[in-house]
């Protein structure tokens, strides 16, 4: 028998490495320690040390999820708080009507799992809490249904500290559902999402897997989207904004009049004009749509205009600011959502605080088209 045989057999039992940097280990450990210590101290002060210690096990397990697995679906506020409510209802109910014992513990476990699944608040420590309450020691039994108070107090303290600590240490918690807004306020999905993986594809894939996946829907979409962007950037061969941009930048100044901007845009067949001050610093940007309303206002009759006293409109009055810009080494694939989903028609390209070019939708489409044409012969040869 080959010596590699036993080694491969044992490899099956070795879990894959957690995709968590060591810095995150210590961040989560310190946060969990502080939260459990505070919750246990407050609960012990208000309800007595035996009560606090009896509830410490499920609380510590919840702290692991809220601090170390904060992005998981099981770690969000409703699964956490909802599971504790389910545990209190099942555990206290069984303890009151039947009494403590192994049978009660065995009954509490499946009942709380079913209730948590029904209410969409699956949180494993909730099952441990239900069993603890069903097997309540004398200190908890003496409280009766008032034991809900320390249970909810622990939950509120842990959730509050997890939210504050995670935010202060650069972690977004809780993970709220992101509502996609389209630029044109229509029911259409963003342009970048109309081809490729759709929400329906995700639903179908999860249904085919047939198992629970501890990741939120938004996180799953973000992971797939980031993977696709990296794959596209690799296929683009490192094309950056500097290779795509137009270098002969047409710009205006804050003192440029409305009629001058119209002539400049129409003369160069442009839709946007960067606005630079005397030092060459980008201070704003104007588009055709920005010029329409002031132009219509000037066309309306007014006594001031009749006597030749109408004030000239300058770009300083109508330009948009601040301006969304990109660095010259920004990957071209990262420009796509800005020019498509954000509805921008022009992205000024910066180097050391100076405008060195602009990338328009036309520039990006032309570059991508040329890249596809150069890749087609290679694909056919392969």
TrEMBL record:
The keyword Transmembrane applies. Signal peptide: none annotated. Residues 245-302, 319-376 form the CBS domain. Keywords: CBS domain, Membrane, Transmembrane, Transmembrane helix. PROSITE patterns: CBS. It comes from the Bacteria. The keyword Transcription does not apply. It holds the Pfam family TM_HPP. The chain crosses the membrane at residues 25-47, 59-78, 98-119, 151-168. This is HPP family protein. The lineage of its organism: Bacteria, Pseudomonadati, Pseudomonadota, Gammaproteobacteria, Pseudomonadales.
């Amino acid at each position: 028998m080959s010596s590699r045989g036993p080694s491969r057999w044992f490899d099956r039992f070795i879990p894959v490495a957690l995709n968590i940097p060591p810095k995150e280990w210590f961040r989560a450990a310190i946060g969990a320690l502080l939260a459990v210590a505070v919750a246990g101290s407050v609960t012990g002060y208000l309800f007595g040390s035996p009560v606090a210690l009896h509830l410490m096990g499920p609380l510590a397990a919840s702290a692991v999820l809220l601090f170390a697995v904060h992005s998981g679906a099981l770690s969000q506020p409703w699964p956490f708080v909802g599971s504790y409510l389910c545990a209190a209802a099942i555990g206290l109910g069984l303890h009151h009507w039947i009494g403590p014992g192994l049978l009660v513990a065995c009954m509490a476990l499946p009942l709380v799992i079913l209730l948590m699944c029904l209410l969409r608040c699956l949180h494993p420590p909730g099952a441990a809490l239900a069993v603890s309450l069903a097997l309540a020691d004398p200190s908890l039994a003496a409280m009766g249904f008032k034991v809900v108070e320390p249970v909810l107090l622990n939950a509120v303290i842990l959730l509050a500290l997890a939210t504050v600590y995670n935010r202060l240490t650069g972690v977004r918690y809780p993970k709220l559902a992101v509502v996609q807004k389209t630029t044109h306020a229509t029911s259409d999905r963003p342009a970048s999402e109309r081809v490729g993986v759709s929400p329906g594809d995700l639903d179908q894939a999860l249904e085919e897997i047939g198992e629970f996946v501890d990741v939120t829907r938004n996180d799953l979409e973000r992971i797939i989207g980031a993977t696709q962007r990296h794959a596209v950037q690799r296929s683009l061969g490192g094309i950056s904004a500097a290779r795509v941009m137009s270098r002969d930048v047409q710009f205006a100044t804050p003192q440029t009049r409305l009629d001058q901007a119209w002539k400049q845009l129409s003369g160069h067949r442009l839709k946007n004009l960067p606005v630079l001050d005397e030092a060459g610093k980008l201070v704003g940007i104007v588009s055709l749509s920005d010029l329409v309303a002031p132009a219509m206002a000037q066309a309306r009759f007014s006594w001031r205009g009749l006597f030749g006293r109408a004030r000239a409109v300058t770009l300083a009055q109508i330009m948009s600011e601040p301006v969304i810009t990109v660095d010259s080494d920004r990957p071209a694939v990262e420009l796509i959502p800005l020019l498509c989903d954000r509805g921008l028609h022009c992205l000024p390209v910066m180097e050391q605080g100076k405008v060195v070019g602009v990338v328009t939708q036309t520039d990006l489409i032309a570059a991508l088209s040329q890249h596809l044409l150069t890749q087609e012969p290679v694909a056919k040869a392969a």
